[in-house]
């Protein structure tokens, strides 16, 4: 890296207002996150019906299958035992190093985790040995699937997958009558260590078998999506990003805003990241490639680490409109080895950061223009996610 520009205000603890100390990474990323700024999407009612005099211009969908709408959407992690469900949840939401998942014990009861981030949601990790959807006499299926946001079905790609597919299809068919709109997200998991050819053959085979079986049972066009994932690379974060994006009613608006920002500042690719989980909640509509996601995701780590070391306490924000000095963290760096590309980061609110990849024709001299446009984007975000 060369020519870098960085301002890193300290991240304050919401309870005690103190700058964060040299906590370990795992402590820093605990769900009760110690990042500053505001909660925008916490209240789903707000997200759906924004209290704003301006007529809303964004899509206001309800959570799929949300009956009463006052609970947090759930992501249900289901699949055969030892397929990797608890590992996924620990790596993505608790920052457990992947190698330590070797020591995770078998789940024996539903493990419920609440995530408080730009949007509150719950992760329910199910024990692999119990078939909840098909055991209506043993479990209150309604209470499990009522507030579901997505059903994530994990298939171990390194194991025999026929049983897993059979159970997945039985579950989809079983739920189809009561909860027809459930997003089913199939993670073909543990694809690390498989050759590229084998991986794509296996992936195609799984998709084909699931779809054939469902259409044989008269269920055409089931809302099922497939992803290849591994906890040993960024694929699991990327898959979760796509799963979470489907739960954000304002996604089209966010994409339109990012498209406009990219066009005005000659940005190649822009991501809106949830800093805690490193899930991106939106990106512009140009094609996404894994490499650009990886570089942006690593960049967040760098910035968070640097702000840990060099950040300073921010004075309290003043309502008077006077000098508050409470600026957002921002950074611009040039990546020499990547064809003179630039990376730009700006903290958008308490949980979200904007990261842009720019090529040579958007150099540091244009930073004032970029700052201005990002400021406009930030203002627009406040309208999209009113408190
Ligand atoms: N190679 C590889 N191994 C993985 C991956 N994800 C998880 N594992 C391993 O798979 C094993 C089982 O993982 P768990 O997370 O306990 O599986 P589970 O689905 O929660 O199992 P139950 O609690 O029995 O339902 C562990 O040894 C993990 O290290 C992956 O992406 N790649």
TrEMBL record:
Cellular-component GO terms for this entry: endomembrane system; fungal-type vacuole membrane; Gtr1-Gtr2 GTPase complex; nucleus
Stretches for region Disordered: 1-29, 48-74
GO biological process per UniProt: cellular response to starvation; negative regulation of autophagy; positive regulation of TORC1 signaling
Reactions mediated catalytically: GTP + H2O = GDP + phosphate + H(+)
Molecular function, one GO term: GTP binding
Annotated CDD domains: RagC_like
Record localization: Endomembrane system
Sorted UniProt keywords: GTP-binding, Hydrolase, Membrane, Nucleotide-binding
Domain of life: Eukaryota
Gene3D superfamilies with a match to the protein in the record: 3.30.450.190, P-loop containing nucleotide triphosphate hydrolases
Residue spans of biased composition, Basic and acidic residues class: 65-74
Assigned protein family: Belongs to the GTR/RAG GTP-binding protein family.
Record function comment: GTPase involved in activation of the TORC1 signaling pathway, which promotes growth and represses autophagy in nutrient-rich conditions.
Subunit structure: Component of the GSE complex.
PANTHER family reported in the protein's UniProt record: GH16429P (PTHR11259:SF2), RAS-RELATED GTP BINDING RAG/GTR YEAST (PTHR11259)
Name the record gives this protein: GTP-binding protein
